[in-house]
Amino acid sequence: MILTTTSTIEGRQVRTYLGIVTGEVIVGANIFSDIFASVRDIVGGRSGAYENALRDARHQALSELQAEAQDIGADAVIAIDLDYEVLGKTGSMLMVSASGTAVKLG
């Protein structure tokens, strides 16, 4: 299945628009990751723990979006938008949402 942030797919025509599909993931940050990330923020450098959590959440959201599109018989999802939001009183939760338009290609 083709997943793209563009509204067209080069060399292919959209035959039918099947509707909007979504995938959402909410993950909590582990307290140990928070502590190590805070130390890295103080001394500089990248936070591998957060980068991995963000990458995994994005992959899960896109996987859910793709599964929803497959369930309705789509060949592709176009115009995908990824959104990130910090949730919770202390900002300890991360939400990643992916949405796009499921289509049948000609």
Automatic annotation (TrEMBL):
Lineage of source species: Bacteria, Pseudomonadati, Pseudomonadota, Alphaproteobacteria, Sphingomonadales
Pfam families linked: YbjQ_1
Range of residues in the leader sequence: none
Family: Belongs to the UPF0145 family.
Name of the protein this chain belongs to: UPF0145 protein H9L12_00105
InterPro entries reported in the protein's UniProt record: UPF0145_dom_sf, UPF0145_YbjQ-like
Origin superkingdom: Bacteria
